Amino acid sequence: MTRSSALRSERLVLRRWRDEDRGPWAALNADPEVMKYFPDVMTRAESDAQLDRFDAAIEERGFGFWAVEVAGSGRFIGVTGLSVPRFTAHFTPAVEVGWRLARDAWGHGYASEAARRSLDFAFTELGLPEVVAFTTVDNARSRAVMRRIGMTHDPSDDFDHPYFVEGHPLRRHVLYRIAPGHSG
Known about the structure:
alpha+beta; 184 residues; 4 helices; 5-stranded antiparallel beta sheet; Aminopeptidase; single chain
C-alpha cells in the first residue's frame, strides 16, 4: 500500500494518517468510555506519538493501524488494521488485527467491516498464514467483533498481558485466531 493508496470496503476507507486526524484521534483517546479496556486515557502528546508510530509502521511494513473514515463523507471515525505486537507471549511473533472507534461510530458494524477488509489484505496481499486478536476478558464488544469476523477462541490460549502488573483487573486477556478462508 503506497502513501496515496487506501483500502476500501462498502462503506469505509482505511488510509494513511493525515495531520487533520490528530485532533479527532486525541479526542477519541481522551474518552474514558472508548479507553475503558486500555490502561488509561491518553494525553494529546501520547495520542500524537501513537499516531506517529502507527504511520511509521505503515511506511516501514506496508501495513499497520490505518485511519478509518466513512466513504463519501470523509468523516474520521477511528483506527483499524494490522500490527505486530511489541511484547513477547506464547503466540508471538504474530500479526494482530485491531480497532478503536469513536463512540458515535459504535453500533453501525464499522469495526467488523473494517476488520474484515484488514483480514482480506492480510491474507491476499501479505499471504499471512494466521492473524490474531486479543482483548481483556470483559471487553464484550470487541469479543463480539472477533466472533462476527470468524475468529475462534481457545481458552488455553488466554494470557496475562505483560503491560499490566500482577493483580491489575485488565491483565488477563483472551486470544482469538483466524486463518485464510475462515472470515465471517
